[in-house]
């Protein structure tokens, strides 16, 4: 980390640091999605949903940790594992099985994994529109995993950011949260590469 980055990190909120320090990972996910072209057909989209399902299993595995539940009080309203599984059923696609990648992840790194998942929910509005327009899917059929939370994307995202930036997460723990976010990005990137056979 250079001197400027170190100075910024010393006073920035955790949510700000996450956005800045995982920016390259975020852009990499955009590039992978462009290469994957998940909305080219329902078959291609089913590969995306399979990747999403496995990632959401990783995320919801963390929900059982009392420390994670304490840090994010509305945890039970989050997560899209079942939605992804139901979408696979709608699409006539098999439910994939492989080991959960987040085994052994705990607080505070778990918050980084949640950050990636919740950020993808916030950003899925565009993907949801693509699924509707190109594949005739909906929040009731095939695209549940991309649909907004009942309260709306922005409201639920702001509540999560408030949990991130609360005083219960100490500045000494921030680096571990960021490391967790990078690990989660790596995991989802790996899932996309494997499911779409990308280089």
UniProtKB/TrEMBL annotation:
SUPFAM superfamilies the record matches: Heme oxygenase-like
Pfam families registered for this protein in UniProt: Heme_oxygenase
GO molecular function, one term: heme oxygenase (decyclizing) activity
Superkingdom to which the source organism belongs: Bacteria
GO biological process, one term: heme oxidation
Full protein name: Biliverdin-producing heme oxygenase
């Amino acid at each position: 980390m250079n001197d400027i980055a170190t100075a910024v990190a010393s006073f920035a909120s955790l949510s700000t640091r996450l956005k800045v320090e995982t920016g390259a990972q975020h852009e990499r996910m955009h590039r992978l999605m462009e290469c994957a072209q998940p909305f080219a057909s329902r078959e291609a989209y089913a590969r995306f949903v399979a990747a999403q399902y496995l990632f959401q299993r990783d995320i919801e595995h963390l929900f059982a940790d009392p420390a994670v539940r304490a840090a994010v009080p509305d945890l039970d309203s989050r997560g899209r594992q079942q939605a992804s599984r139901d979408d696979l059923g709608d699409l006539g696609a098999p439910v994939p099985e492989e080991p959960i990648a987040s085994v052994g992840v705990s607080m505070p790194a778990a918050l980084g994994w949640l950050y990636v998942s919740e950020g993808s929910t916030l950003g899925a509005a565009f993907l949801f529109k693509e699924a509707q327009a190109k594949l005739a899917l909906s929040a009731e059929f095939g695209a549940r995993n991309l649909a907004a939370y009942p309260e709306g994307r922005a409201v639920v995202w702001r509540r999560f950011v408030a949990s991130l930036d609360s005083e219960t997460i100490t500045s000494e723990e921030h680096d571990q949260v960021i490391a967790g976010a990078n690990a989660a990005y790596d995991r989802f990137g790996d899932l996309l590469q494997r499911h779409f056979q990308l280089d």
